[in-house]
Amino acid sequence: MAFEISNEQEMIRLMARDFAKKELEPMAARWDREGTFPVDAVKKMGELGLLGMMVPPELDGSGAGAVAYSLALQEIAAACASCAVTMSVANLSTEPLLKFGTKVQKDKWLADLAAGSLLGAFALTEPGAGSDPGSMTTRAVLKKDKYIINGAKVFITHGQYADIINVIARTGQEKGTRGLSAFIVEKGTPGFTVGSREEKLGLRASNTVELIFEDCEIPAGNLLGNPGEGFKVAMMALDSGRIGIASQAVGIARACLAEAVSYTGQRRQFGKTIDSFEAIRFMIADAATKIEAASWLTLAAADRKDRGLRFTKEASMAKLFASETANAAAYMALQVHGGYGYTRDYKVERLYRDARATTIYEGTSEIQRIVIAREVISEQGSASPS
Ligand code: CAA
Hints:
This protein is α+β, with helices and mostly antiparallel strands. It is 53% helix and 15% strand. It is built from eleven helices and ten strands.
């Protein structure tokens, strides 16, 4: 495997690191405590080109690509995991337009999404349709030149602040994953309102809300792709989204390791700093090894995406392994802090709560295993017998 991080990708990583250290890290604990969505910091991320990194230059984006995106997102996550999920979902929201949008739709929205003057969101999940989005009931009915949407979406990342939202709704009579379609709904459309906001365990500076559609009329021209293609649009967007969440998890895990190393190098017990004990050293070694592996899995998925190869399996492997690693690293980091780690005075307490979401959203670990197993079995099944 030939894989090298280019100078340009490295510069993007350093730019994101610098921004995260100066603008996010000093504020992250306060945003978490107060449950504040950091509007100004998100605007700055947009100005730096971090919210539409897949948008190509001919559409006024940076076209930085998935590897650069992953490197930058890891840096943002290490400072503020909430900001990282905002960045991840904003980038995810450009994918349906990039892959399924008409020229008119791309020209209308992508440049502003890439510049951060518009914030995009993605609405798939419903109260009764989480791991199984094919059971959704939100419906869009075509009447002349408009679709009329009725239903509700839940757990929508920054839904309250989004300017445009990718909404998946049922248009056909078929059941399950067939008969779904994808739409763009703009903020302020009559019949579209933001419902309740979730009070979450972690990622408290990321906004998570319910969206309600009551006879919400949108132009028929806001349909993305063909009617009935909605599930495919959602799954392709989630393949990319999973690289984002894997990157977020790697960033959280790195921050956990850094906190653990720093604390155990200062904390003295039995007459020595506790990092001199083998029990602690083995924990650090295991975490560092898993983080390295998670990072390479994530970059490998991103690299396949940049090279235009299929990356469904690799994105799920990265998301599964990196999210489990983030949780293990957070557990380890809190453990070595002892009682102090259990208090709000130490960053590991926040990291521990933030890590927890990564094995759940954008497909639980169990869903990732389903995707990986299907892909592996179909690859092996299609291999010719020797
Ligand atoms: N790319 C393109 N097409 C895909 C695809 C992919 N990755 N995965 C599936 N499809 C297509 C299939 O080829 C199939 O097409 P045909 O009907 O033409 O044959 C169709 O979609 C149906 O596929 P499946 O039969 O595999 O569907 P399924 O019902 O068995 O579900 C699943 C598969 C993988 C379990 C899927 O439902 C899934 O990923 N569930 C998890 C949902 C999820 O991740 N939700 C997260 C919500 S978003 C979020 O968390 C965002 C946030 O704010 C942080």
